[in-house]
Amino acid sequence: MCGICGVVVIDGPPPDRELVTRMIGRLRHRGPDGSGLYRDNHAALGHTRLAIIDTEGGAQPLCNEDETVWISFNGEIFNYVELGEELRRCGHRFRTASDTEVIVHAWEEWGEQCFTRFNGQWAVALWDSRERRLVLSRDRMGVRPLFYTRDSRRLAFASEVKALMADPAVPRALDPTGLDEVLTYWSTVAPRTIFRGIEQLEPGYVAVLDRDGFRRHPYFSVDFPDRGAEPEQDIEANAAELRERLVEAARLRFVRSDVPVGAYLSGGIDSSITAAVIARYTDAPLHTFSLRFTDAEYDEGVHQHKMVAELGARHEEVMVSPADVAEVFPEVVRHTETPVLRTAPAPLLLLSRLVRDNGYKVVVTGEGADEVLGGYDIFREGRVRAFWARDPGSATRDRAVELLYPWMERNPGTAPAFARSFFGQDLDAGDPAISHRPRWASTSAVKALLSPDVRAELDRGPDVVTRMPAGSDAWDPLSRAQWLEMTTLLPGYILSSQGDRMLMASSVEGRFPFLDKDVIELANRLPARHKLCGLDEKHLLKIAFADLVPEQIRARPKQPYRSPDTASFFSGPPPEWLTDVTSPAALADAGVFAPRPVAGLLAKAARTGGVRAGNTDNMRLLAVLSTQLLHQQLVVDGGTASDAAPPAPMTVIDRVQHVRSTA
Question: What does the pLDDT average to over 617-629?
Fold first, then answer.
């Protein structure tokens, strides 16, 4: 894992070396093991390195044999060994044993088609100095971030927005439309970001800048077969195939590393399977890491310890209190670079610190299983709502909502009339987003706090449904719901705010077997009933690994990861930073939220101590706090708190001055 950045000027003076050096410094946390800069008359590429594969020889920026193609790369290509062997047979000569050099030669051999061959997670910048062409690429599901800003004469790119803002010319303003998306979907939808003038490359896309201009297009898109036309119908055969592919995916992510790899263990089925596969199918010692909570409502320690005993793993855990969440929350926002509606990223930041403190740079986790194999409660909600839409008068189907959220202390079964009212709104059997409308509507309630000026800029609510592929109306409703999750929440929140950003804050790389290229290819062609059987989520996964995971873990109701929200800030005296960012002056300066309703929200939280705060109030408070922090950190301060020297050793290759030096 690494940080990448750069500036390309097709026609004009050479990129500013000092600017790119500052950009590199702001990515120091992503790669503390060294840095590099390449510059010629039209391009400057920067890199910070977290050395994982070929720790001695894989420094970047790296080039081909004649030094005409240069790369700055963030991520891992897990099938690099096989690709390297194929490329050597084609006549390519390698100077390193790194996956980075495989990308360079793959680009030379196959052009843009190389990205379809990669099984991995990446953000890539390739500079072809002969053609004066920049190529950017991002992995299929958006595991690795890639932002850019451009005008008529140049383009700047980086792994994080704070690096782009090292340039004073880059706009520093929140984008109301991006904010509207966050307050609907929990994240912006690529290519939009929360900042004016800054975009992100879409997952599964390639972008090219050359003398013909700038253009981008997909090399991959999430797709499903028509309902009833799924090619894989035998559930036992599918379970065996899923097991085979997941075992290989987990094995690759554990053994293809020149440094030790650990594993997250949440107590749920996904991380339990990845850890069990590592224990069964590799010879590597297993070291697991878990989050614990002082509040029993969020703690899964009983299930974690059960799995640790089964595995015989060396185990570490961090206990998190509400006060811990409040203390690190400003740092969380500095790394997420977007508003968040939950505190859930904060404990994950503390968990990544635990990993790093134990000497690990890499962890394997269970992220992606819910999206790929139908594990979320929102998919179950969609099934219930579709039942109602088809037969609104059915008493049996009416009671189905009582089966949702069995893990919640205040689940819908305790208030069936409210549940029927909430989940029964906007029922339309033909709505492609029938699964998601209640969540989007409840999230949008946060917009009532927006200032009149911001609300006036929002013409209408965003609607990602208009981007659904042609022919998706023939998919199973579960497939449409999965597409929506894979387009919104997965890349924008799960893999970013809770994933890449919290891991890389501690210089730790996350690897996700459930997002393996071959696993996704199989999962997307499975019949919906194999993934969501009635209301049994991840049905096929439970069959496939019945022998590796104890019944206590396999049969427990799905319990999504959560952490205390409002209570984190008000169960004791509010932290000093909270008072600062929510003062009338701070609210007026940002201009995002109306001071009066915010004051009412804060007074209510202080009065109750945040105990048993409702879902809407939790989201409102987190939206205000994170947006206000973001305004202070990136709009006002421009990310200056992240200023640092590039990590040593730093290699500089400056073709403008024809000088090569090592500092």
Answer: 98
